């Protein structure tokens, strides 16, 4: 359907070299977008780009350390220089620290909240500035979390950051709506990725996770592709400040 056709559009995907970001980038490419993956690992990015191209997609990458000052404006300039335009931002980069709250250090807090929340805002701001300067529409897609809605032990900085992302998305959606900029959030459930590998390796915790999922399976990263394509496409032009839960029914139960 042409509503979901992304041909001619350029999507910047952070964290696109692995895990959920890689799967969503592949989905955007399958819908016709030129995806530009951004990250620090040349090896991961090259492999992800090669996989997308092998499926007939258009992909390239830029090397960037999103924790550095000024990197957010620069990566937008780099994408425009490489691909000619920027229509979609999908911020999927992230990290995790699993500790009891009493043991969290200031460095732990800063590293987790910086990549999930501070970077989300600065990338969105840079994307919006570019779109407004070009008098063009843009789609901004954040990746939230179950922790935006319910509490889990041992991940206080992550939960705080993802809860902040939920509020940020609503605020930016309201503020930038008249500029033709849509801001929406994907809420994944439990997926087997590097961020969850240590948790799911614990048999007791794995059983508990499975007991909470009505569909009785972990998510496959490809399960997120449809939500990403929807939020990036014309099909969502009148949707902003919204969430799509891709969690196997966890929050519904």
TrEMBL record:
Pfam families: adh_short_C2. Its EC number is 1.1.1.127. Coiled coil: none annotated. Keywords: Oxidoreductase. The keyword Lyase does not apply. One of its GO terms (molecular function) is 2-dehydro-3-deoxy-D-gluconate 5-dehydrogenase activity. Residues 9-189 form the Ketoreductase domain. Belongs to the short-chain dehydrogenases/reductases (SDR) family. This is 2-deoxy-D-gluconate 3-dehydrogenase. The lineage of its organism: Bacteria, Pseudomonadati, Pseudomonadota, Betaproteobacteria, Burkholderiales.
